[in-house]
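As a warm-up, study this chain.
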Amino acid sequence: MKLTKIDSRKTRLPYSTAVLVLGISSIALCCCYGVPGIATGMIALILYKKDYATYCKNKENYDNFESLKTGRMLSIIGIVMSSTYIVYLVVVLNIYGIEAVSNPKLLFEKMR
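Now compare it with the structure written out below.
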């Protein structure tokens, strides 16, 4: 069995950690009326695009592409969840009104 030496010249992609953190925060912020989740998810996708272009130029120089892909998937999930929450809020506002959104007891009464 031949062992290969790991190349110590590999570097990390500059925005991979930021993409991962923003992807996680886009999921966490989806219930804050959806807007922060969409904003952080979009920023993560923009940073992903920059790092992906850097990675494609010279793939063998970088070692953390997996975390970049994970951050991208999390940001897409966060954007979808935030968008779904915004659609939910619009539907509830149209059906029950603004008073029901700010008062959960009134919302449950109107739903009955």
